């Protein structure tokens, strides 16, 4: 955190700021990605809280309907493109070179370019709040939902420029994701330290390799669809114009060909954090390393063929419905294998319940439930009943909050000492964990029920007497706990940055290469490039008489 | 703790080095391919679905000479790369210039075709679904040709001021990968638009 510290030399704050803006160092860029993601996490959280206040009681007039539409559009777009993507790329940026024994990414300047593209995309989206009025003076923030179905996005139904800012923001951010993914793939394939064959890479590197491969395949369709939408809106093309024979359904296909792999792009880095944290806190090597890699690849492969399960209600043929139902259920198999492997890792281990481990354990249970409701929604008739209801909202928040956000918190508690040289407070961390866990379950366990009672998503209010009122009030009360947990988290970060216990190189007694260097690591990461002989190089170093490479 | 390298080092194995440039460019090509795939799918999906306007067969002519030029530029750029590997910079410059001329002619041919379609046949991107999908798919490809030509021109300029040397052969060949990709996409676009779609 050079920004906040005055070094021995006489650099002013402005000099430090300049260093961060022009940097091409993967660690600084990684931290900037993470800070950018966390900043927008708070913004998206405030948007969600406003919506929950509006929905707490029936016939509420806290927010006008138009603002409610804008809020759920901004919330969804923000959380996926400005929180999820920057956070996973931030961690990949920071950790991958350190864990494979490299000095930086393969293309450091391209890395900075990708980061600033993402920032520009985020600013474009939020600039719509100021500039979205446009010449016709209609609308401000985009209000078409995060998947922006046609023909709602056509010029005729979406006046002004708010939808254009949404399109451009997502498009530019997508370019940033593609170049960063290409950069990380190249780094992993070309810059591993001597001795680190693919089968000796840390699982985090493996999973990020798969994730970036998916980004390369999945972001393109989104980019293409956004270009088509721009052509429709600015040049009068007819891609999604039903009056000229265009197809609104085609947009749904194109969007979800991106959209579903995107879910796995977001969750696979979560799997990666868990695969690094659980072994260290169970004091055992990961159970079933090759199977973990194979399962990840299987998930990536199958996830490219499941997109139309978002579209069961549009009236596809029975063959399509069957194919997508079966392929969706198939994803559960490799995912189940992973969950068993994590449990296998803990089995018989000497488990330490520090905060990073707590978040991973929370993830295990919650992701299992998320997967089970996912299988339920893959059953076509069930989906016909519950599509676009709060059951679906509860399901994907279990995936993204109960899954991804929990693992990201775990990862922050685990690697914060490496990045800053100081430990996060365990006491505040446990407050954060329990408050957030309770809040999460109060909100999202409950949210399944109004969905099953028929409450559709995206309505700004509802009548009394439907039986949804109490349940919605409970959902909103959970937000209070979550928000308090987040305040403990922010407080923990700020306090520990200055007053936290000194971490040393290796506070968790871990086994991967990032813990061999100082905390925080020097700009060049390693004075001399390490040479590894097993998957746990630091174990070999600490136990010269009983090294891993004898058994692998 | 001592540095990692001291303690790990037993015998540093020979480490195969993949070319960063080639891997990076391959990644970019994969991502680009998916973008083109979606445009090709849209083109095929909307074939014959236009509600008005001219039929493809009525207005499109096979751009044979154009295609020959673009495809042969793949050969010339390979010859250029080979010449540079051998250190023959002047021959490299010759083949590189030939590539630019061939690519430039392709772009000129596309411009003539579009002018004909717009001003004489009255087909624009707004006319119907055929116009929409035709101009966007062919235009997306032409845009990639333009980007490629700009990159080729930069290298040409660097060659003329004497900055391109033998050790740059690898980088030049990475750029050539992109150019080959643009050519392969043209084969697909040609097949879809001028053979299947016509």
A few lines on this structure:
Chain A is an all-alpha fold and 552 residues long.
Question: Would you spell out the secondary-structure blueprint of this structure?
Answer:
The complex is a heterodimer of chains A (552) and B (198).
Chain A: H1 13-22, H2 26-55, H3 65-99, H4 108-131, H5 162-190, H6 203-235, H7 248-282, H8 289-303, H9 318-346, H10 355-378, H11 380-386, H12 390-420, H13 426-452, H14 469-499, H15 537-542
Helix pairs in contact in A: 2-3, 2-4, 2-14, 3-4, 3-5, 4-5, 5-6, 6-7, 6-8, 7-8, 7-10, 7-12, 8-9, 9-10, 10-12, 10-13, 12-13, 13-14
Chain B: H1 4-8, H2 20-45, H3 56-59, H4 64-85, H5 89-120, H6 129-160, H7 169-196
Helix pairs in contact in B: 2-6, 2-7, 4-5, 4-7, 5-6, 6-7
Description:
The complex is a heterodimer of chains A (552) and B (198). In chain A, helix 2 (26-55) runs antiparallel to helix 14 (469-499). Helix content of chain A is 66%, strand content 0%. Chain A is globular and about 70 Å long. Chain A has 552 residues and is an all-alpha fold. The mean pLDDT of chain A is 94. Chain A has helices spanning 13-22, 26-55, 65-99, 108-131, 162-190, 203-235, 248-282, 289-303, 318-346, 355-378, 380-386, 390-420, 426-452, 469-499, 537-542. Chain A has one domain (26-550): Up-down Bundle (Cytochrome C Oxidase, Chain A), CATH 1.20.210.10. Chain A starts with 12 loop residues before the first helix and ends in a 10-residue tail after the last helix. Chain B has 198 residues and is mainly alpha-helical. Chain B has a domain at 62-198: Cytochrome c oxidase, subunit III, four-helix bundle (Four Helix Bundle (Hemerythrin (Met), subunit A), Up-down Bundle), CATH 1.20.120.80. Helix content of chain B is 75%, strand content 0%. In chain B, helix 2 packs parallel to helix 7 (169-196) and helix 4 runs antiparallel to helix 5. The radius of gyration of chain B is 22 Å and the shape is elongated.
């Amino acid at each position: 955190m050079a920004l906040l510290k005055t070094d021995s030399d006489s650099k002013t704050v402005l000099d430090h700021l300049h260093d961060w803006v022009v940097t091409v160092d993967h660690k600084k860029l990684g931290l900037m990605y993470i800070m950018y993601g966390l900043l927008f996490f708070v913004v998206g959280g405030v948007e969600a809280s406003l919506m929950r206040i509006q929905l707490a009681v029936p016939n509420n007039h806290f927010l006008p309907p138009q603002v409610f539409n804008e809020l759920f559009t901004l919330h969804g777009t923000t959380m996926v493109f400005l929180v999820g993507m920057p956070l996973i790329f931030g961690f990949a940026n920071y950790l991958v070179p350190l864990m494979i024994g490299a000095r930086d990414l393969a293309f450091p300047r391209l890395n900075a370019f990708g980061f600033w593209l993402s920032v520009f995309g985020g600013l474009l989206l939020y600039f719509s709040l100021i500039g979205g009025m446009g010449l016709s003076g209609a609308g401000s923030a985009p209000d078409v939902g995060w998947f922006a179905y046609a023909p709602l996005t056509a010029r005729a139904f979406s006046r002004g420029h708010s939808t254009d800012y949404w399109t451009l923001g997502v498009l530019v951010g997508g370019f940033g994701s593609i170049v960063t993914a290409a950069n990380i793939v190249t780094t992993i394939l070309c810059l591993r330290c001597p001795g680190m064959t693919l089968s000796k890479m840390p699982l985090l590197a493996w999973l990020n390799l798969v994730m970036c491969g998916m980004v390369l395949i999945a972001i393109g369709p989104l980019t293409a669809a956004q270009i088509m939408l721009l052509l429709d809106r600015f040049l009068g093309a007819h891609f999604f114009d039903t009056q000229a024979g265009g197809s609104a359904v085609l947009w749904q296909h194109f969007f979800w060909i991106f959209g579903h792999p995107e879910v796995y792009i977001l969750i696979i880095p979560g799997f990666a954090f868990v695969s690094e944290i659980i072994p260290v806190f169970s004091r055992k090597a990961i159970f079933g390393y090759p199977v973990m890699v194979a399962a990840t690849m299987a998930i990536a492969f199958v996830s490219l063929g499941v997109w139309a399960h978002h579209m069961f209600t549009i009236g596809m043929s029975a063959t399509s419905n069957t194919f997508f139902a079966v392929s969706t259920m198939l994803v559960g198999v490799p995912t189940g294998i992973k969950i068993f492997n994590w449990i296998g890792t803990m089995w018989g281990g000497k488990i330490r319940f520090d905060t990073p481990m707590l978040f991973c354990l929370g993830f295990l249970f919650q992701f299992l439930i998320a997967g089970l409701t996912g299988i339920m929604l893959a059953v076509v008739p069930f989906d016909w009943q519950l599509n676009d209801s709060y059951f679906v909202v509860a399901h994907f928040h279990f995936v993204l909050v109960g899954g991804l956000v929990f693992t990201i918190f775990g990862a922050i508690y685990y690697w914060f000492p490496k990045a800053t040289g100081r430990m996060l407070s365990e006491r505040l961390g446990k407050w954060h964990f329990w408050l957030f866990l309770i809040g999460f379950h109060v909100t999202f366990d409950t949210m399944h029920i109004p969905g099953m009672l028929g409450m559709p998503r995206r309505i700004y209010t509802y009548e009394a007497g439907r039986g949804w009122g109490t349940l919605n009030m409970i959902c909103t009360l959970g937000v209070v706990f979550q928000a308090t947990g987040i305040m403990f988290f922010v407080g923990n970060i700020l306090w520990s940055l200055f007053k936290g216990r000194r971490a040393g190189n290796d506070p968790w007694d871990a086994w991967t290469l990032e813990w061999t260097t100082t905390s925080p690591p020097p700009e060049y990461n390693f004075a001399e490039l390490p040479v590894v002989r097993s998957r746990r190089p630091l174990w070999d170093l600490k136990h010269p008489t009983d090294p891993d490479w004898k058994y692998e | 703790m001592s540095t990692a390298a001291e303690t790990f080092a037993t015998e540093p194995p020979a480490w195969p080095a993949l070319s960063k440039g080639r891997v990076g460019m391959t990644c970019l090509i994969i991502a680009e391919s998916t973008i083109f795939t979606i445009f090709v799918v849209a083109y095929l999906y909307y074939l014959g679905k236009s509600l008005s306007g001219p039929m493809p067969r009525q207005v499109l002519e096979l751009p044979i000479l154009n295609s020959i030029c673009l495809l042969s530029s793949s050969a010339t750029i390979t010859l250029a790369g080979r010449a540079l590997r051998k250190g023959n910079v002047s021959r490299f410059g010759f083949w590189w210039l030939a590539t630019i001329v061939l690519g430039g002619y392709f772009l000129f041919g596309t411009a003539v075709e579009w002018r004909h379609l717009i001003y004489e046949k009255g087909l624009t991107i707004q006319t119907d679904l055929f116009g929409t999908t035709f101009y966007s798919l062919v235009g997306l490809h032409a845009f990639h040709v333009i980007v490629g030509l700009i990159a080729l021109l930069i290298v040409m300029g660097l060659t003329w001021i004497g900055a391109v040397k033998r050790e740059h052969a690898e980088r030049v060949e990475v750029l050539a990968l992109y150019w080959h990709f643009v050519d392969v996409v043209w084969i697909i676009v040609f097949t879809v638009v001028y053979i299947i779609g016509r």
